[in-house]
Amino acid sequence: MTVLSVNMNVAALLRNRRNHPWPSVVDLGRAALAAGAVGLTVHPRPDERHTRASDVRDLRALIDAEFPNRELNVEGYPDARFLSLVREVRADQVTLVPDAADQATSDHGWDFHADRARLEREVSALKADGHRISLFADPDTTVMAAAADTGADRVELYTGPYGGAHSDVEAQERELDRLAGAAKAADDHGMRVNAGHDLTVPNTAALVARVPALAEVSIGHALFCDALTYGMEGTVQRYLTACRSVARDMG
């Protein structure tokens, strides 16, 4: 079954526009978890333009106090600041992303050949500390063997091009084929598969139906947009239904 992790960056970005305490990242995280999300995702960038290090600590405290069976997934580039933070908050899952410090959003996966030595080193150290490790990856069948060689537990497939093809059915099908092929290649090499970026209720359902072994989706932007209409509880329920689409499609 595919599980849902709610990315909290949009909530933090909205709060930071006025630098007020609202919306409360913790309160919205609590609502998402109470509605059935398996965990919360954060991507604390160096400039703290959305999620701050303090938010990461506060969300860890929320999960520990009220939802001890849920997870905190912390994404980011593995510089010293990031690595120190994920160890401090005991992130259940650490997703390493090859972002530049000034990058607007994640838009490509690792070069697993060029970055292999570094990734092997960081993955080994983080796993020794008890974290599950996922690596951000383009949906490319040819790189999954190299990704597996790093020792990572999972890859997170970048679904941006798939989400961007929302008005082109043929392009969506091509991207679904790429994602399905990459997921199979990752599975063949012993890794589980996550996915994230520009996922919506309809395209999440289509993705899960095509990739039934998908372990986790991380969704933020579209989910928070939908929450303006349906509320957080209703929105999370809609995404959970999409995550169960394979069961419906397979009878």
Structure description:
The protein is α/β, with parallel strands linked by helices. It has a single domain (about 5-250), classed as Aldolase class I (TIM Barrel, Alpha-Beta Barrel). Helices cover about 50% and strands about 15% of the residues. The chain contains eleven helices and eight strands. The protein has helices spanning about 10-15, 25-35, 55-65, 80-90, 115-130, 145-150, 160-165, 170-190, 200-210, 220-245, 245-250, and strands spanning about 5, 40, 70-75, 95, 130-135, 155-160, 190-195, 215-220. It has an eight-stranded parallel barrel, surrounded by five helices. α2 (about 25-35) runs parallel beside α3 and α9 (about 200-210) crosses α10 (about 220-245). The longest helix is centred in the C-terminal third of the chain and has 23 residues, at about 220-245. The chain is globular, with a radius of gyration of 17 Å. Residues about 245-250 have low confidence and may be disordered.
Give me a quick take on this structure.
The protein is α/β, with parallel strands linked by helices and 251 residues long.
Task: Annotate the secondary structure layout.
Blueprint: E1 3-7, H1 9-16, H2 25-34, E2 39-42, H3 53-66, E3 71-76, H4 80-89, E4 93-96, H5 116-128, E5 132-137, H6 144-149, E6 154-158, H7 160-164, H8 169-188, E7 192-196, H9 201-210, E8 216-219, H10 221-243, H11 245-249
As a whole number of angstroms, the C-alpha radius of gyration is 17 Å
Q: Counting H and I runs of at least 4 residues, what is the number of helices?
A: 11
**Residue ranges: pLDDT <50 for 5 or more in a row?**
247-251
Percent of residues in beta strands?
A: 15-25%
From the spread of the alpha carbons, the general shape counts as globular
- Order of helix and strand elements from N to C terminus: EHHEHEHEHEHEHHEHEHH
The CATH class designation is: Alpha Beta
- Total strand segments: 8
* CATH topology assignment: TIM Barrel
| Spatial strand sequence of the major β-sheet | 1-2-3-4-5-6-7-8
Straight-line N-to-C gap:
14 Å
